[in-house]
Amino acid sequence: MQLPWHNSSRVRFVVVGRVGMDLYADPPETRIDHAERYVAAVGGSAGNIAVALARQGIAAELVTCVSNDAIGRFCLAELFRYGVDTRHVSLIDDGYRTSLAITETVKQDCQTVFYRNRPADLALTEANIRDIDLSDVAALVVTGTAFAAEPSRSAVNVAMRRARAAGAHVILDIDYRSASWATYEEAAQICRDAALSADIVVGNDTEFGLLAGSQLLGTKFAEDLVKRGALFTIYKQGADGSITYTGETSFKTPIFPVAALKPTGAGDGFMAGLLAGLAQGEELKIAVRRGSATAALIVAGIGCAPASPDRATVMRLIESF
Questions:
Q1: In sequence order, what E strands does 247-312 have?
Q2: Taking the mean position of all CA atoms in its chain, how far away is CA 100?
Q3: Structural domain boundaries in the chain
Q4: Which CATH number is associated with domain 12-319?
Q5: Which of 123, 243, 248, 298 is 20 to 30 A away from residue 261, measured at CA?
Q6: pTM of the full predicted structure?
């Protein structure tokens, strides 16, 4: 499958959603409650996707809000250091706080504690969207958590309409995080509506199960989205790899066997590797494989953004199998 932005002037990706600070228990394999110290990194699903895109040579712009304090400024500085365009990351006051995730680098039963008190990313408004130039954007990448509350929900819907009007594709990473939503039922309805409006939808078995009303029906829902007009969907199955559905066919893609240090960050890396491959002209099957390779390298490293590989590292892993 060739997408319209293959070999075109549309070279930018705009990513909408949360960014925050991650604190990793150190040394690796230490539980949170026994850590000697913590190592800080930029995180959050949208932030991680943007960083991973930039690491592979793709122009990535993040649209979100962070608190006007030291934590928010830390995130801005780290995004800039990784090469992410931050011109539409807004600093806000009024008691909003940038999200904080305290997590571990362990393979089994990895714990993450989230602090999302008045999360700044959900304060995104239509005013934050209005001035974004989408004329040369290949795709708007929306992470599902951005729909969890107003005013962000309405702002992201406006962004999707503007992107489509500008000729860009809309890509949804379902990104279901229960702590961000008032109810499971609300999350199911809102994310389902977003999926029906997207051109490309990526999620895991739990997330497609959310949209379908049952995890047993998740694969059928992913397949049906293509019949309703989506370009393709990708149903991620953890250690079992993924299934990609297109209008013509479906295919399975295995994971890359690596010595994983942790399970976190795989989904964000998968999305970035997939889009980087497509942006650089790869066929869909090859790009999905690149997504899998990126995910593997991130779970094999410490941190999410810090473990994001450059293109050469991804290619070396792919060529070794």
A1: 250-253
A2: 17
A3: 12-319
A4: 3.40.1190.20
A5: 243
A6: 0.97
